[in-house]
Design a protein that fits this description.
Blueprint: H1 5-15, H2 35-53, E1 58-66, E2 72-73, H3 75-81, E3 89-97, H4 101-114, H5 121-133, H6 158-172, E4 173-175, E5 182-184, H7 191-209, E6 214-216, H8 229-232, E7 242-246, E8 249-256, E9 263-265, E10 271-273, H9 275-291, E11 296-305, E12 311-316, E13 319-327, H10 332-355, H11 365-371
Parallel strand pairs: 8-11, 11-13
Antiparallel strand pairs: 1-3, 2-3, 4-5, 6-7, 7-8, 9-10, 12-13
Helix pairs in contact: 1-7, 2-4, 2-5, 2-6, 4-5, 4-6, 9-11
Length: 372
């Protein structure tokens, strides 16, 4: 699957909740031939912006031998080192400093990208100059257990995007064969990471543009009876990718990113939908129907695609389901229009079903849901 770099850029902005603010805008995206250069330009633009507004600071505790006491006296150290003979005291004191973990992560990512051979020479030079401006921040080595989550406040909201960007860069970087630089994995071949990105992009897109709905991921409870707490503890947790709600309507969307698309090859070479995806979605929808039988309900399996269009409609166990794709190779305004159109079609399917008076799903629906 080959997605234009500009469209990947927009997906990152939506997925990382940066697009609504419009703070980044275009950062020479047309001059970024690939992902490493895109990440480098994003990191340069946002870190420079952060420096203009001022790096975040926090209090850290320091211990030092001082002529003028401040903070807390360390009597144990004073007695042991006999500093009173020198007219000094050892103290613990708190000081505001830029040398905090989020700034250390940003600097380490800048240094790593500056050593990446896939990044253009001029951009690597800019990255090295930028790293020098962070002279107050200590150099650290990034690790897989590094925390990229920061507490968001009004003063440090710009860090959210930067932390997500730094984490993505770290996960995709691999050392070169000789260990003197780095290269990038192909993100589009990493279906797990791209699935998470595609899901976050869709959720935030609908959250931003479809204000008539309450949008979010949800954790439906199993509708089950005749089971002990011990039995219930073995049931897997259900989690929807995207649930859109209005007072009388519920739509559940499962976002899927597969390089080979929505279909698998059947026994005789024919194309078939992926059964596991249908089972999962219908389970969510059945549980929603059992809990809220008067609601208008519909579901959609939404696949990422390139140069392919899929739009199938079914009514399974009395519930309308769309299986569709969004072509990520087209121009971005067309992608947005296609997403709006698909959501409208899903909503229409829910209303039409309700107007026909289809008030209940198949009587076996609850049992099927539990066995799916």
């Amino acid at each position: 699957m080959s997605i234009p770099i500009r469209n990947l850029y927009y997906m990152f902005l939506y997925a990382w909740a940066q697009f609504p603010a419009g703070a980044i805008g275009e950062v020479g995206i047309d001059r970024s031939p690939d992902l490493p250069n895109l990440f480098a330009k994003l990191l340069l633009a946002n870190t420079k912006r952060l420096l203009r507004h001022g790096l975040d600071r926090d209090y850290q505790t320091f211990t030092d031998e001082l002529v003028g006491p401040r903070g807390r006296l360390r009597l144990d150290r004073i007695i042991k080192d006999m500093t009173q003979l020198r007219g000094t005291a050892i103290c613990d004191f708190d000081e505001l400093t830029h040398n905090i973990l989020p700034n250390q992560i940003i600097k380490a990512t800048i240094v790593d990208l500056a050593a990446c051979a896939e990044v253009e020479k001029e951009t690597r030079h800019e990255l090295r100059l930028l790293a020098r401006r962070l002279y107050e921040v200590a150099d650290i080595r990034l690790s897989s257990n590094q925390s990229y989550r920061v507490l968001v406040s009004r003063s440090n909201r710009e860090y959210v995007f930067l932390m997500r960007l730094c984490e993505f860069v770290f996960r995709l970087r691999m050392p070169t064969e000789h260990g003197v630089g780095a290269r990038f994995k192909s993100i589009l071949e990493d279906e797990l990471r791209m699935s998470a990105l595609f899901e976050d992009f869709l959720r935030n897109f609908f959250q931003l543009h479809r204000k008539e709905y309450s949008v979010g991921a949800e954790f439906p409870q199993w509708y089950v009876s005749d089971a002990t707490e011990y039995d219930l503890s073995f049931l897997p947790r259900m989690e929807t990718d995207i649930t859109l709600r209005q007072p009388h309507t519920t739509m559940i969307i499962d976002a899927k990113f597969y390089a080979k698309g929505a279909f698998v090859e059947g026994r005789y070479g024919e194309r078939k939908l992926r059964s596991g995806h249908l089972y999962q979605l219908i389970t969510y929808l059945q549980h929603e129907h059992v809990r809220h039988p008067a609601r208008q309900i519909a579901g959609m399996l939404l696949y990422a695609a390139v140069n392919e269009s899929v739009c199938l409609k079914y009514e399974l166990l009395g519930i309308p389901i769309l299986v569709a794709s969004v072509d990520l190779a087209q121009e971005w305004p067309d992608i947005e229009a296609e997403l709006h159109n698909l959501l409208d079609r899903c909503g229409t399917a829910a209303r039409v079903r309700d107007e026909r008076g289809v008030g209940s799903a198949h009587p076996l629906s609850a049992q099927v849901a539990l066995s799916a």
